[in-house]
Amino acid sequence: MSNHLKNEHSPYLQQHADNPVDWYPWGEKAFQKAQKEHKPIFLSIGYSSCHWCHVMEHESFEDEKTAALLNKYFIAIKVDREERPDIDKHFQDVYQLMNGRPGGWPTSIFLTEDLKPFYSATYIPDEPKYGMMSFTSLLEVVADKYKNDKVTLVDEAEKVLRHLNPKEDKIQATKLDESIIGRVTEQAKQLFDNQDGGFNKAPKFPQASTLDLLLDVYKLTGDKETLNMALFSLSSMARGGLRDLIDGGFCRYSTDNAWLVPHFEKMTYDNALLSSVYIKAYHATGNDFYKNVAFETLDFMLEKMSEEKLFYSASDADTEGEEGKYFVYSYDKALRSFEKEGIPNKAHKKLTAALHITTEGNFEGKNIVRVDDPTSINIPYYKEAIEALKKRREKRTYPFIDKKVIVSWNAMMVTSLFRASRVESRFLKPAMKSLDRLLSTMYINSQLFHSTLIGKVPKIHAFLEDYAYLSEALIEAYESTLDETYLITAQKLANSAIEKYYENGKWKFSRGEFETDADIYDSSYPSSVSTMLSVLYSISSLVDIVYKKFVFKTLEIYSYDVMRQPISTPKMSKMVIRYLRDDIIIKAKEKKLKLHITDIDKLPYPFILIKADTNDGYMLCNSNSCFGDEKEFDGIVKILEKR
Fold this sequence. Notes:
Elements: H1 11-15, E1 24-25, H2 28-37, E2 41-46, H3 51-61, H4 64-73, E3 75-80, H5 85-99, E4 107-111, E5 117-121, H6 135-148, H7 150-164, H8 179-191, H9 208-221, H10 224-237, E6 253-254, E7 262-263, E8 266-267, H11 268-285, H12 288-304, E9 306-307, E10 310-311, E11 314-315, E12 318-319, E13 322-323, H13 331-340, H14 348-354, H15 382-394, E14 401-402, E15 404-406, H16 407-421, H17 428-442, E16 443-444, E17 447-453, E18 460-461, H18 464-481, H19 484-501, E19 502-503, E20 506-510, E21 516-517, H20 528-542, H21 548-557, H22 559-564, H23 570-590, E22 596-597, E23 608-612, E24 618-621, E25 625-627, E26 636-642
Parallel strand pairs: 1-3, 2-3, 22-25
Antiparallel strand pairs: 2-4, 4-5, 6-7, 8-11, 9-10, 11-14, 12-13, 15-17, 16-17, 17-18, 19-20, 20-21, 23-24, 23-26, 24-25
């Protein structure tokens, strides 16, 4: 029996369309029913590749008795957080406020019939454990309280909303200066895991934007310790587990400190951002290992996660109800695969040891393939073994793929492809075709949309992140091709973003039904504000300096938070450094300071292309050096390009 989700486009909502729970999508039909019947609302937010979402569905939402309780006392609403990030963001803020810590998925919110939140949780077990009551017990308590003491719940909800929307914003500003660079390094050292790389303890996320920032800081300072933190982290993450050595691609996060056991879902944004960081590590070191990991990741996305030049949003952790089933191997079946591939029996013992394949296993009795040193693999029959294990996987059921197309995440992939194309030209055509397809599908009559399924007409309008990341991809396209139509479109999108979301130095993530503030903190991926500032700063250099005022005003408003804790806002910190360093370049030219020569291969990032008052025209420069003949400059005519 279907519920009210059967006509929804979202693959996540479709996963719940046959639950006995009488789910509604977010909308007036559900709200009106709640008001008419004076019932509270149970709101469940998740996404299709979320492991704990699947667990809660199996334990509770597929259970007839639990569903009967929900249907009797509540109006149940399902939301795909990827499809409606505005709703998710609003209720993540609610959860944070009510619980004093960040939330996660599934997000479980109880609301009054007037949509006022009074209780929030994440995963709720079907039996009492983890210090929590069971879901059914909670439903009974909430239903009783709503019937007999509704006033108390409404009062609680009113308090939440008052704190969620304070009447006055207190803005603390501080001076932006280059002390931020040293502060980034020091704070990174404090959080750095010297044993396994990365930052903080499990669960460990790749934190691509932090690694990207550290590589930039190294280029500016030459500090080898900063470089080594980034490189050690990237190497450790590539050993196997978080990185899939068989198919390629990275999983979302690791459940342990050593990057061995992930939740096996693969997100488009992680693979886009990490491939870009590995490319940057290659530029910093010249080591082909980092380039090869980046290219392997991009090839995985092009082969497994794309259709009609567009990229799917995610693949699942579970197969046939079992987490990691597609990805892991028993010892016996691994040996059988090696035999079929023609690998000599005498090599099996050393090979299985080198790949960490044992009889007892390293994940629930099975094995996640892993190597000790991915930067220098000297394992006899390694390639043959990987091919053998790949062939065994081909016989298995591939994890569910959420084929939703999200503009911001596709744009991240396009950006990474363009950056890769400047190293290897084979990525240029896929980058251009993907970008053109994304524009034709999601940018219709000068209206940008957020998400759709391939072949469907998009319905959900874009958010700030879509404008920001798509504009960033367009600027990358312009830098790679010098086709000015990309730059013109980027400027057009930037103008729309300013009109829709900018107000006196602050930015909104969404307007309309849910007006939410845009964060400066990087979470799963860099903040939409910092990405938008990067776009505007590039456009100010390439087109019109007037855009720079939007950048400065925003940096000024958030200066206190960024200068105090720059490691928490990596991309915004990068923007502060970029702003300050470029200002130094301009001042150097104004003072006619002599800049020293450097080899183009050693030119520190970020650099800019300038037109100087010399007969030689354009020169590549950063704050320390220029590529070209040593000379004094009489000033800058125009900054033309920035990378």
